[in-house]
Design goal:
Elements (H helix, E strand, L loop, with lengths): L1 H20 L5 H8 L17 H11 L12 H4 L46 H10 L8 H9 L2 H10 L9 H12 L8 H6 L8 H12 L16 E3 L19 H4 L7 E3 L21 H13 L5 H11 L27
Antiparallel strand pairs: 1-2
Length: about 350
């Protein structure tokens, strides 16, 4: 496995550096060939068109703690919109105070990822939204209980009818996921300094930040962290060149191998987006790194086989801070009240 992955990424890096050597002298041109700015309008989901009613329902469900067995945990508990879309913990606290096995990735801009979760086990946001609700460690409910819970709240029965007007029985587990997904698709962060730079404003980045961008491209970081989300578009082993220690790569978490069962996917994870990365510490799937300088240095040795100088690390981190965009401004929804017949929380 190691030889195959090393060859693949060495070849990718070689192609990148070769293309740069063939006349792309302008840093902005190089950046435009590798990255895309986030559009002002949220993307449209396949087979799940957004309407005002569906987005509003999805927002209510995103903040709805009664979807959990204890009525105490919502999607926003682990993906706090005001906290970079994450929760600031190495691993999140779920049902009955259990800890999850991996760091909660940001929900912001997650619509641009190739798949969801660190191991890509959910193909899209709709599938992802249903996972935590039924996970015994996270929200601790079941699909049937979640549906019964919402059907026991008259305001939700009416909201689902408005959001899915063509369906006879619109309050279904699949539609819970669809509604949450269209809301999550609105949680994008456009107009970062780097977006303005990609759109042609060369003054949007400082000299130091441009130096960091040049290093980010030239050292090979952009071989994996590219596209609109500056990552999130592929899978890669953690430790292409040199395996990091157990502090960053716990040996009992074999990554995507849990999903595929393939040995070649051992310690392979979805490459995370670097959008808003300064807001989403701690880092890595293990959540065991808190400092961006430490993270950049570790990735240099583990993924690129390069020991970056301290000044190079500082410049790259300066560039990474330009990926922080306008944060979503979300008005906390008023949730429909329970009634006498609404299912009660578990102890």
């Amino acid at each position: 496995m190691g030889i195959g992955w090393n060859f693949r990424y060495a070849a990718l890096g070689f192609c990148l550096l070769t293309s740069m050597a063939m006349g792309q002298d302008n840093l902005l041109d190089d950046a435009k060939s590798l990255f895309s700015p986030i559009a002002k309008d949220p993307p449209v989901l396949n087979s799940n068109p957004a309407t005002a009613e569906k987005v509003e329902l999805g927002k209510m469900l995103f903040f709805e703690p009664r979807l959990s067995e204890s009525h105490n945990i919502s999607c926003n508990t682990c993906h706090q919109i005001g906290f970079g879309g994450a929760d600031g913990r190495p691993t999140s606290i779920g049902h009955n105070w259990q800890h999850g096995g991996r760091n909660a990735p940001t929900v912001l801009n997650s619509v641009f990822n190739i798949a969801q979760f660190w191991d890509g086990r959910a193909a899209d946001l709709t599938e992802q939204a249903g996972g935590p609700i039924a996970n015994p460690i996270e929200m601790g409910s079941t699909p049937a209980r979640a549906v019964d819970q919402l059907k026991g709240i008259p305001g939700y029965v009416d909201a689902f009818r408005k959001a899915f007007p063509e369906e006879i029985d619109p309050l279904s587990y699949n539609n819970i996921g669809k509604a949450i997904a269209v809301f999550e698709a609105t949680l994008t962060t456009p107009n970062a300094p780097f977006d303005r730079y990609l759109e042609g404003d060369e003054k949007a980045l400082t000299v130091e930040e441009k130096k960091g961008l040049g290093l980010f491209i030239g050292k090979g970081c952009a071989s994996c962290h590219s596209g609109v989300n500056v990552g999130g578009g592929m899978y890669a082993p953690f430790g292409v060149v040199e395996k990091p220690g157990g502090d960053f790569l716990p040996p009992d978490d074999e990554g995507r191998k849990r999903v595929t069962g393939e040995l070649q996917d051992q310690y392979v994870f979805k490459v995370p987006s670097l959008r808003n990365v300064e807001l989403t510490a701690p880092y890595f799937h293990s959540g065991r790194a808190w400092d961006l300088d430490e993270v950049v240095a570790a990735m240099g040795t583990a993924q690129l086989g390069t020991r970056l100088a301290p000044e190079e690390v500082s410049s790259i981190v300066a560039f990474l801070r330009t990926l922080t965009g306008e944060q979503p401004q979300v008005t906390y929804p008023t949730l429909p009240p329970s009634v006498a017949t609404t299912p009660r929380p578990a102890p």
